[in-house]
Design goal:
Blueprint (H helix, E strand, L loop, with lengths): L12 H11 L2 H20 L3 E9 L2 E9 L7
Antiparallel strand pairs: 1-2
Helix pairs in contact: 1-2
C-alpha cells in the first residue's frame, strides 16, 4: 500500500477529525471526498447540473430532483 502526505492547516484540522469520526479513517474520508470532487468536475465538463422541477399534482406540490443538462428550451 502506498502512502501520501496531506498537509492540513490548523483551522481545517477539526474538519478532518470530524470526517475521520464518520468515515472510520482519514484515508476513507479523503478518498470519498476526492471521488465527489472529481464527479462534480466531470459533470461541469459535460454541462450537467442539478435540476429541480416543481409539479402540481392535484393540489399537492411534488418536487422532482435529478442531474441533467438542457437540450431544448421550451417557451
Amino acid at each position: 500500500m502506498s502512502t501520501k502526505n496531506v498537509y492540513v492547516s490548523d483551522q481545517d484540522l477539526p474538519l478532518f477529525e470530524e470526517a475521520t469520526k464518520y468515515a472510520g479513517s482519514l484515508s476513507t474520508a479523503v478518498a470519498a471526498g476526492l471521488r465527489m470532487f472529481l464527479d462534480a468536475q466531470k459533470q461541469k465538463e459535460l454541462s450537467v447540473a442539478p435540476v429541480e422541477l416543481k409539479i402540481n399534482d392535484d393540489g399537492r406540490l411534488k418536487i422532482m430532483r435529478f442531474v441533467g443538462r438542457k437540450i431544448y428550451k421550451f417557451d
